[in-house]
Amino acid sequence: MSHKNIYYSDKYYDDKFEYRHVVLPKEIAKLVPKTHLMSETEWRGIGVQQSQGWVHYMIHEPEPHILLFRRPLQDSSAPTQAEQIKNDM
Question: Per its database record, what is this protein's job (predicted)?
């Protein structure tokens, strides 16, 4: 299974969570269950690679090949808006 075509977004934040989305190629997207959110074991099993703590928290039905992940913020790990803008430049 080719993992090189998996796209990982930059992280983005709100007051409580850190977020990212993962875009899967068609051949891997076929393996995503349509009936439930995936456990860490399941998403790792199809080739998604990211640090611990990420939770598959939502299914966006129009785009099931895009996995939505979040994890709780750890004591001010989110950049301020100014820091985020600076990092995006």
Answer: Binds to the catalytic subunit of the cyclin dependent kinases and is essential for their biological function.
